[in-house]
Amino acid sequence: MMASIPVPTARKNKFMLCMNLQVAALALLPLSLAAQTTQPASTTAPAKTAPLKAGQQSVNWLFRYRLESVDQDGLAENALASTLLSRLTVLQGITEQFSAGVEFDYVAELGDTSYNNSFNGKTQYPLIADPAGSDLNQVFVQYQHQGHQLKIGRQKLALGNERFVGSVGWRQNEQTFDAIRYQTQLSSAVKLDYSFSNRVNRVFGSKSPQGDWRSNIHLLDLNYAISATQQLKAYAYDMDFREAPLQSNRTLGLDYQQSGQTGALSWQWAAAIATQQEAADNPKSYRASYQNIEGQISYQSYVFGAGYEKLGSDNGVGFTTPLATLHKFQGFADKFLNTPANGVKDLQLKAGYVQPKWDLQLQYHWLDAAIGNMDYGNELNATLQYKFNPQYGLLVKAAQYDAKHYLTDTSKYWIQLLAKF
């Protein structure tokens, strides 16, 4: 059953007051920072950092205010979280080949705190994994020369579409890795990308019992540019988690992508397959498979797409992706952050209308078990983004999960304001 907007009558005035105060507060931010000479900052997955020459410096500020509301059947209260992320990123060139970077985050709770942040004990509320606090998000040194890049320290890792490894940039506190990452061109068409990490700094923050995972992670990507419009990737990921042995796994896979254009019509499609088994101290023995195929066409301002993704199961264990940016997959309601024992199949359709300043996207998911005939449920997602200019943006977003035979009906709504300098 589709739920209505989760703002109970007794809380409506509180909700609106909170919104008005936070919108006003964020609107004043640019006035206090306008005099600073800075460069725009990325808000999601990290791109390859451009080398800075000796003495060059880049300073980026980012402020992201979010109001998130959750109505979840089976819990006594609705959740409402009002948070502001403040982020400072500084990159410094040391020599022609060496540079360093540091990034500080501070997440503040503004007004309403009626939500379960995973460790505050407010279990009568739904989970919103945006705890308040400060964090040394990144601190690293890197070497870049003649196609080689070596990066050492706390950093973001975002591999491919982040289905297996990502920074979880949607959450106010991102996922980072204490890691060594090496990237190089083996030939004009083949690129190698290898990372080793001994610690995962998760979105729940260091105060949470599950905030940090000590690990022994090896990530290897081999990317082959078949042509200007075709890419093939082979990957091998070995993940050992001391605090979460049931998530330890070894995954091998292939990913193919192609794009093209015919007149005013542009298109792209992708396919992926993978196999996974237990690793390290995982007490479960299994071998599960993964398949994905998706396509998209664009004509003028219109976008249409479809996809089918299957995370299989074996011996009662579902194919797992514990380091993924999971919010991007299987619906924004985040009902499938942990793969069910019988796996999951996701058939999805999407449509969008894109203009230079605004972007409207709709997506619908049919979710079923990979083994057996269980109908998990359906989910509708809607997103509206408006860019006032390259520095300021507004996001309105909604997700409604209609449960059939898995978990419970859930509605989520977001209003987000972004300022970056």
Give a description of the structure.
By secondary structure, this protein is mainly β. It has a single domain (9-420), classed as Porin (Beta Barrel), CATH 2.40.160. Helices cover 5% and strands 56% of the residues. It is built from two helices and 20 strands. It has helices at residues 12-27, 29-33; strands spanning 57-72, 79-93, 98-114, 133-145, 148-155, 176-185, 190-201, 212-227, 230-241, 249-262, 265-278, 287-299, 302-311, 313-314, 317-318, 344-354, 358-368, 375-389, 392-403, 410-420. It has an 18-stranded antiparallel beta barrel. Strand 10 and strand 11 (265-278) form a beta hairpin. Residues 1-47 have low confidence and may be disordered. Pfam families: Alginate_exp. Keywords: Signal. It comes from Rheinheimera tilapiae. Residues 1-35 form the signal peptide. InterPro entries: Alginate_export_dom (IPR025388).
Multimeric organization? single chain
The CATH superfamily appears as Porin
CATH architecture: Beta Barrel
Give the number of helices. 2
Which spans of ≥5 residues are poorly predicted at pLDDT below 50?
Answer: 1-47
Provide the gyration radius in Å: 22 Å
Determine the mean pLDDT.
90
Derived structural class: mainly beta
Estimated share of beta-strand residues: over 45%
Largest sheet: 18 strands, antiparallel, barrel
CATH top level is Mainly Beta
The dominant shape is globular
The SSE order reads: HHEEEEEEEEEEEEEEEEEEEE
